[in-house]
Fold each of these.
Amino acid sequence: MTDIYSIPIIARGRIIEPGEDAVEYQGRGGARFRTPDPHKHIHDLVLGNPVLLHDLMDTPVHEIVDFLAEVGKRLRLEDNAYLQESFALALQAGGLAEPILRGVYDDLPRMFDPDAMSALIDKSVGIDYLDGWVPGDGAYANCRVRAVGTRQLHITAGNVPVVAALTIVRGALTKSDVLIKAPSNDPLTANAICRSLIDIDAGHPVTKHVAVAYWKGGDEEMDRQIVRVSRIDKITAWGGMSSVKHIQKFLTPGIDLTALNPKYSMSVIGKEALESEEAMAEAATGIAVISGFYNQTACANTRIVYVESETDDASLQKVVQLGHKVVEAFNKLPQEISTPVEKRNHDLEAEMAAVALEDDFYHVEGNTLTGGVVVSKFSDRVDFYDQLNNRVVNIVPMPNLLEVAKWCDDTTQTVGVYPESLRETLLDPFALAGVQRLVSLTGGDAMQLFHDMHTLPPGMPHDGIEPLRRNVRWVIDQRAPDNVVPMAIAAE
Amino acid sequence: MADAVMARTELDPSCPGNWLDDGYERLLAMSWRDAEEVQLKVLRRRFEELKDSVAALERLAKREGVTKVDSLEDALPLLFDHRVYKSYPISLIENRDIAKLNSWLGRLTTHDLSKVDLTGIQTIDAWLDRLDEFGMLIGHSTGTTGKLSFIPRSRTEYHAFRACHNEASRASSGVNPWNDPIETFFPGYRGGHQMALKMLFLFNIDAAGGPEHYHTLYPGNISADLMSLAGRMQAAEDRGELEKLGLDPALLKAREEMIAQGKRREQDIEAFFFTLFEKFRGKRVKIGGTFGDLIRTARTGIEKGYKPEFGPGSFIATGGGMKGFKDPPEDWEGYVKDYFGIERVSMVYGMSEGTGFAPRCSEKYFHIMPHTMPVLFDRDMNMLPRVGTQTGRFAFFDPMAETYWGGFISGDQVTINWEEDCPCGWKGPRVGPVITRFAEMEGGDDKISCAGTAQAYNEFMDFVSQV
């Protein structure tokens, strides 16, 4: 529990180990880590001169993809010592159980699949636009457009380590310079990936445009040094409202913020789920998967389940039955998806215990170790809905599911739907209300559901926006009408 | 045996509400270890009396499998969390479903609230007024989290409540509120059902020597309706649907006034204090207010060259921590004392959920008297041993709660020294000097996750909670 991890700064192909000037931080779960004092390495972290990106600009996308694919081959937990260290620390710190975390790490090479990466960048930005200047149509051929890489700061989320890999891949594919501020609950994954880049080719333009460091969230001195128009063009801030609000203090025109702010997701269940044992079991499995995967640490995890039902005693009895089946289903989830946890969530249990005293209003089952439900006996979510975690969901009876739209907004990322017939009625109103994605809970096979909800075509929007498109600069080369660049050169 | 206990502690287990009748002195001269046996008797009796008549306790005892209480440890699973006092669905408030709210509250007290006539009641304030007429003394919280707690105190506890307030104040200030009236300034509302304000209104007007000697910043009462609906109203206003809530127009107007008042508050407090400085120059006074109010007034006063001058025996009565006040002076107490020219700063430690208050001594520790049974818990909710110095989450049993269950676990993290060797001479477990909020912080202060967990920040509530 008292291990001290050394976390070097990764500075564009160089590794700066913590030395004399090291500073120590308290991580999650009792781990401590030492890093070089980030205040003394500002210039190693930022790219003051954007023209230095020309090396990456001149590297064709296919070469970048080839390089990343090579990196992906090395990102196997069993034979990558860096990842093993990062895995050990994430295990201790991040709050994900071992089998789940292993699953996440095992998935890393897949994120570096060359075909998927090519499709991702081509769909979202367009390879032609990154590799060259693309002339307009017909009479506008004198106007050419190019997607140009930028200098990006990424304040990453640590609850799921894929964010680190995602950020490095996206940065390289957009031919951008990336500075990653690692989170305290996953300080090593980005590091581990970058060290693998360095091992393969420390001089590769991709390697030379990634920097990773940890500094304390809210360190105004650091943020003031880094978040300047002269040093950063784009910021992507994941997670905590406080981190997003904090960084907003330093924004000025010229710095574009993409705030992937915290999300609460939910599910809507049609009355069909209450009509037979089989349907109830199928819906319960769907709810358990979408609520329970990654142990409810992700933004796409359902926390509130709205069920089409009246609120008379007979109807409520069925809703309670569904709740019971959800608790059972949590315990049947494959361990690669979800597991019981070792530590109680005291705050949430206190909330559950308090409402459990109120039979008239709530039915409570389960706990924060193995999962549970709080069934509202009226059409409103619990007041502590923003604390639902540890595989505990609130099930709310709603005579009319369209009413749910009043609780949807920018924070409603993913909505699980059962059965599919419900989708048509809800899709448009929910989309207008702020919902960013609807997924299916039909099928009853936990592994299949989990796989399906995590399989999106390349280049799809994220949280209602297109981050890759947004993170490049779209530059126009507008020539005199008679100065059209010959196609042969344009296509070069 | 019973006689021997009586002789040693002189505490009558049959009426803890009278323990303070002869003043705080003998209680603070008594070791908590000597009071323990009597306290346990009271605890045992309270559980017997309340386990079938307070529905929420009955339910909890059943769930925890507790059928009798012979020791403090037996009773630990029965501590009410603060959430128990606000376990009603917020929609009851939003829909002003007073009948359901009333029956919810009824589960927390031995009083039969179904007998309360709710005819014509449309607001929370009117409901609480009606409950007061019925014989209750319900106090609600400030609702910082957007939801009010209701503490089911009643007239039955009034005698003890007043004694606790007045004796703690006397111990900490040196001025006797029972018979030595003192001109009092309080930069807030005059009253209302919020527990602290209700208490000040109930006891401090007498202590001041009558309404004309009790000066408040605002002449009116704080509104429970505004506090409880603030979050909902803000959300509705954002959607442009405030009128759809179907609220009494008077309430909407009151809200606007309150917002305007909130914006002016700092200037108003200055004006309030500076006027009183002139009017009561040289007189003996008692000055209330939060740390922030006092520091801000002192800062502006120094800036503008207003120097108050009060008579001997004046004191400052404050509490509640900095509550987000930015950049306080390092020795804020010294700073405030210097400015006001007042030597004595009176503070007590207590909370809405408990009847007892711990007065602060000359060494800046809060001494708990035998009419509160304190317990500390670690993060895993194990009781910490009652020896030496311990830091943990503060909980207590309140033997004076006769008509509701007095076991409560707070959100405060405190340090208690159990050894009764305070240089001030007072006995009893002593708390402090620092009191913080107990939060689940296990290192990693900037853990980032994409899942939303934090309460949305609500500026309006933030302002309202500074009563």
Amino acid sequence: MKGIRTRLIVYFGLILLLIVLVLEGLFYWAVHTYYFGTATEALVTRSTTYTNFINKYATGYRLKDKARYILENASNEEYAKIEVLDVSGKVILNSYGFQTGEIIDTPDVSDALRGLTGIHVGKSPQTRERVIAVSTPLTFQGEYAGVLRYTISAEPLYHAVNQIALYGAGVGAGVVFFAFALSLIIAKRIVDPIEDLTKAAIQMAKGNYSARAAKRYDDEVGTLAETFNYMAAEIGKNEKLKNDFISSVSHELRTPLTSIKGWGETLISGGLEEPEETMLGLEVISKETDRLIGIVEELLDFSKFQSGEMKLSLERMDLREVLDDVHLQFAIRSQEKQVALQLEIPPAPLAIMGDFNRLKQVFVNLLDNAFKFTPRDGIITVTATETGGRLMISVGDTGEGIDADDLPHITGKFYKGRSKQSGSGLGLAICKEIVELHRGRLYVNSTLGEGTTITVELPAAKTINIATKG
Amino acid sequence: MKKAWLYAATITYTLLSGCGLTDTPNELMRAPSADGDQQSINQAVMQFLPPGSQLTVPLHPDESSAVSLQDLNGDGSPEVTAFYKSEKTDYEIGVLILSQKQGSWSKVATYTGIGSELDYVQFLDMTGDHIPEMLIGFGGGDDLNKELSVFSLAEGNLKELLKQTYSVLAVGDLTGDDQAELALVIHDHNNLTSQAQIYGVSHDKLDKIAELALDGGVNGYEQALIGKASEKQNGLFVEAGLGAHSASTDLLLLENGQLRNPLAKVEGQMDLTFKPYPLYSEDINGDGIIEIGVSTQPKGTDDLPMVAIPWISSYYRWDGAFGLTHVEDHYQNYGNAIDFRIPKKWGDRYTIEIGQESDSPIIHLLYFDEETKAKAELLALHTIPQKSWSQVEDQLKQKHAPYVLLKEEGKQVLVAISPQGTPDLDSASLQKYKAMLLTQDEIRQLYRPLRIPL
């Protein structure tokens, strides 16, 4: 596996190697330029000054006499080799006193014969030694009569430049090595928190949601560790919720089953002699079975929402019909429980594209909850209004209200709050899903001890052509 | 300074590396080591030179150097001969001879001659033993006396074989026996006597073998040259200066041990080799035979003062008897280093005129009819400064002028421009004129840069 550590070291090393190589190249160039530039400049200065002197004051001398003058006045400390060449490039005298007669045809000589100061850095054709040669023209009677050529060896300069470049390479290698060590440390600092995180994740995967990743540095990985810990806490909470649900659903299922079984056994042992008692038992069995069916329906609905299989059959409808229907349905319960149910509906239709049965399910559920938590002599108000293309239907009660800490969770699944009321804890979650499928919103306002208002906000259908009515 | 950062970088590096990289570029400058031989010889010579001495180069011949390698004792390995001037006195010339023994140079002999300049040095076998002798001419300076010494190196000592004052000298084979002779021309200003002396091998020794008195009334002798006078005979050509600026040439032949001058002036006749300006003998056409130069005046220039005449250099060779045969004519211009050979087909129907331009006068080569005085341009030689040449070239191209670029390097460009159009001549002359016109190839062949001694 190519870990971050390896990659970091390789990339770091490559980048630094590249930088060091580029800098080394620049450094070599700079030193080379400095050494050769200075040497050439010095040679050019001496050569041109001397040539100017000769051309100015030894005008009457022919080339040979100039050469003799140059030889006789050459300093004993002269470090360069001086040659006097005729126009064909033939050496007529050098500073060692020899007339070698060799023809020098390096570019500096031809430059000098065109009146320029010729500079040549390269191998001497005769000896293969690297030299720096500077040639300047000697004049006689207004014409170029020959060339004065200064030559020095370039080998010591190359040696010095290479020596310095070698030191440079040494320092560069040191830098690369140092960077290598440094990148190891940096890699360790980056990789270690990630490894910690990995270990914590493994623990969590095994079901230990109490495992926590340590946050070492306040950086991205640190934030990730924090998020991870948060996630673990949430999963833990959900796990608890699920367990609570299973136990409460089991309890919910067991209560009607217990009474069904009780009545069933009574009927078996008691025979069917007393028709009254038999009828009561069968009624209880039927009622409890309805309750079981209700719970199972809710569970099925919920699982449909979970898997995304819930489909709405949308049609154009008047929401007032749903509310009237619900009002009718809860009229008896209102009288029985002595809780006033008030319906405030505008006279105009509340047009909406919706699924009649699903929307009815929503309001039945909301009113059911309201009745459940509203004590005797309380008031439940259903208000519907249309503002700006939105239908607002709120169901308010004067019940016990919801604790502010529970408020964000009550539309969650399996949440039942602290109440000891029966139910799966899925009702509100299903309502929320249905409303959201209608592209609406559901929100809850509640004050503990005063009551709860649940508002459903739905998009109104666009008004249709009046002509169709007539 | 723009190189400051370079210095800074170098210094930083030097400090960082902690090593003794203190050599600045200037300290690293030294002569190429590959010329090791010459350098070590030079160092050896410098070591044996008296303090404060400087090497010096002989004035003649042209190919001579301050330090030479010559096997002077015939042992198969060359000795180093170096000439130097002493700083103590201006009137001494030193000769230092070193030989190599087991890799190191040691002093063999020294000689100090009286003289302010080294006029002549030659290494040549003068005794017939195939070991070169050393001929050294010491001089006192311009037009002063000179003295020649001939040395041989025998048993580690310099032996002076000859010592003789001279005005000019020549070395070469005069007798045709492949053995070099030495010719000295001696001129005595005070007594107005002159003589030519020939030294050669006589009884295995260097000795005077012939002598001839020359005209003592001359101004001086300027050059002597030994070379072929004809296919079969060698001769000594001596240039003498006469009067204010005129000159003449003597041809001396060595026959049966006697010197004679076949061209000697006969009483009452013109001196055949007289010339108004000096013109030294040389092998002008490369046939191996030396020609004698005589300056002649172009036709139609009788009205001009002497110095304004564009003199033509006519070259003649000895006819084998008592006369000269014309070889060819040249127009030679020293100022512009032009040597233009006059083509044979021009005969004597041409003349030369120099333009009136102040800085670089145009040289006009003209057709000239002596009877009618009619003139027509055959060719013009223009000298143009290098920097204005491209401009001039454009103008020439615009005018469609036929031109030949004869010299393009150097400070001056030389271009030959042929005439355009038909000159105003009568039909007979026009025919002759047209025959004389030159093609571009001919112009190129006729031109050469003037040979000027170094």
